[in-house]
Amino acid sequence: MTAGTAPLQALIDQARERLPGRDFGWLQSRRAEAARAVAELGLPDRKSEEWRYTSAERLVSHPLHPAAPARLDPAMLDALAVPGLDAWRAVFVNGRLAPAASDLEGLPEGVVVESLRAALEGEDLDLTAWLGRATGDGGHVFNALNTALIDDGLVIHVGPGIELERPLEMLFLTDGDEEGSTASPRNLVVLEAGAQLTLVERHASLGGGMYFNNGVTEVLLGEGARLAHDRLLEEHGAAFHLHGLFLDQAAGSHYAAVNAALGGCWSRTDIHVRFRGEGAGCELDGVYLAGDGQLVDMHLDVDHAVPGCASRHNFRGILHGRGRAVFDGRILVRRDAQQTDAHLANANLLLARECEIDTKPQLEIFADDVRCSHGTTVGQIEAEQIFYLRSRGIDADEARRMLCVGFAVEVLDRFRVPGLRERAEERLRAALGQDNSED
């Protein structure tokens, strides 16, 4: 066993007997292969370029164990509701679907939305061709850990040409009352040719205490399919959150996502985009916030492997107190990917001298007929801006919050669901209201 992975291997051993689908040879084989990868890959350290600024040792210093089933207080669910959101909803508690809290009635014919556990045991869908297609070899050790622990999550299949008129919400709730509780949701989103869907994904906490959410979502878009994906992370300050989003796009498909990381003690989001057919497009927007004791890590890996695809990526970070953030964005344009249009921007606002941002936008271009750009900025609030607002009767703290929200609004305005944009802004304001650092 490679050094550092003992807590992860112990987690696999504890969960093995309670995982579903043990009668399926193909699933057991994938789990076993992933478990071997966990042992062989080892815990990422600072010698790895992708983990240079983010230590995983803080995570594995806690004893990890599978999350136990938890009860959901209806009042808590009401408090977490997004005002004005009319959507189908799938609610997960500690990584397991909570049917009583979910609402999946009235889905159109040709659309299947069910828990991964139910899909593994049912006959409606054959997952063998889809599960693992976008992830490939699984990437780092935590993606392999998720595969080794495949248990539950949401499976979405939208048939050819179907457009869902209402959004679909995935709400993942975790109860961290017992330290080291670990959930490993695995989601699969398959849109056939010409299908369209708006997907809302949220992660929130039910209680205090340290827990670890290690999720993976695979998105497979058929020709001409369109997916709008709003994601909001609002977990409490003791939570560890790691999520890998793997996107596989066929010709003419379009994916647009807004990612807001506004909670957690230690969070990392890995987004992998692979263009498999010409004329596909991808838009990624993101905003992240890090204060005292928080680390937020955003990684993009965009692979232009075919001609005529377009990608645009715009991420903004706000750091206060002693917050730390990492942004690592890589766009690869392969030799045959002529007429690629790709742009990457990262802007950061530092509110205190103790903040730290490590930002590294990258372009690797091997084609000659392309339009590509990348850039990053790191700055502070100008004293003149504060003075202007204070001269109009606004106190210094509120002036600072207004300027921060104004900095983030370019991303927040891209949320498809208005209530989600308002919720993200409220959380941003609340977090900045707790900060007493000086400009």
Task: Describe the protein.
It is a single chain. The protein has 439 residues and is an alpha/beta fold. The chain has one domain (66-383). The chain has helices at residues 6-15, 25-41, 57-60, 74-80, 116-121, 141-148, 383-390, 396-412, 418-433; strands spanning 65-66, 88-93, 96-97, 111-115, 154-158, 168-174, 181-183, 186-191, 196-205, 211-221, 226-233, 239-249, 254-261, 266-275, 281-290, 295-304, 310-319, 324-333, 340-350, 356-365, 370-379. The strands form two sheets. Strands 1, 4, 5, 7, 8, 10, 12, 14, 16, 18 and 20 form an eleven-stranded mixed beta sheet that branches. A ten-stranded mixed beta sheet has the order 3-2-6-9-11-13-15-17-19-21, covered by helices on one side. The longest helix is centred in the first third of the chain and has 17 residues, at 25-41.
Summarize, please.
The chain is 21% helix and 38% strand. The chain has helices at residues 6-15, 25-41, 57-60, 74-80, 116-121, 141-148, 383-390, 396-412, 418-433, and strands spanning 65-66, 88-93, 96-97, 111-115, 154-158, 168-174, 181-183, 186-191, 196-205, 211-221, 226-233, 239-249, 254-261, 266-275, 281-290, 295-304, 310-319, 324-333, 340-350, 356-365, 370-379. The strands form 2 sheets. Strands 1, 4, 5, 7, 8, 10, 12, 14, 16, 18 and 20 form an 11-stranded mixed sheet that branches. Strands 3-2-6-9-11-13-15-17-19-21 form a 10-stranded mixed sheet, with helices on one face.
